[in-house]
């Protein structure tokens, strides 16, 4: 694969944005039968099971010096945020969750500057600001968003974006010598048992009594296999070849695909949507400009 080609990197960003942009609706469907913790646990367990053959194959690459960073990638980068997001979506709108998720590049840059001596470039700052405004514009253009719904649960998503920022910087700075498959499979090798142990402590009787629970379970399967395992394989592979801030800018593009989901569901697209999309793409371009 042409990981060093700018066009290919941007294509991967678009794929990730599409996959993660679909995660909110999958979580919403899964929560119809499952508790928020069960939904998160199932998501992580399925992702770990899909990656298990690769985990076993890559155990020979597991070094003591990488253990701490791999635990960060597994638990800080995926496991804990999965629980934070499903918990938050029990009390706040999906649109608001999407907007708060767009704070990831900000925390990625700040954490990188403080702990990893990331050099500050004004083009990157300009791109961050443009992308943030574009993302906020897309989300606030929806009729269902109510800022009156902002509560303490919104802070859970803010915390998740902090964790994402930590994870992206750690993978970039400490694990670039490993491939994306090695990073992801070894990280999820540790999260799988934790998810399984937790799920065994929960009560699935109410789930089985819920109508259409199997359909809701399929949504969680898609969330775990495609929205987590496959997406993290792409993300960890991409981080090795681009800047941490550019990688995190995928959260700016996610609302773009949320708009397309809305169009497919009968919503109309207007000039504001198009303007915000242009701002986002321009922001991502500026973040990745070399000069």
What would your notes on this structure say?
The structure is a single chain. This protein has 291 residues and is an all-alpha fold. It contains 14 helices and no strands. It has one domain (6-288). Helix 3 runs antiparallel to helix 4 (64-88) and helix 7 packs antiparallel against helix 14. Helices cover 76% and strands 0% of the residues. The longest helix has 27 residues, at 213-239. It has helices at residues 6-21, 23-30, 36-57, 64-88, 94-101, 104-115, 122-140, 154-174, 180-199, 205-208, 213-239, 244-248, 250-264, 271-288. The protein starts with 5 loop residues before the first helix and ends with a helix.
Number of individual domains: 1
- Low-confidence segments, ≥5 residues, pLDDT <50? 143-147
Query: Helix amount, in percent?
Result: over 70%
Total helical segments: 14
Oligomer status? single chain
Mind telling me the C-alpha Rg? 18 Å
**What string gives the helices and strands in order?**
HHHHHHHHHHHHHH
Structural class: mainly alpha
* Alpha carbon gap, first and last residue: 25 Å
The whole-number mean of residue pLDDT values reads 85
Biggest sheet details: none
**Total beta-strand segments:** 0
Topology:
Elements: H1 6-21, H2 23-30, H3 36-57, H4 64-88, H5 94-101, H6 104-115, H7 122-140, H8 154-174, H9 180-199, H10 205-208, H11 213-239, H12 244-248, H13 250-264, H14 271-288
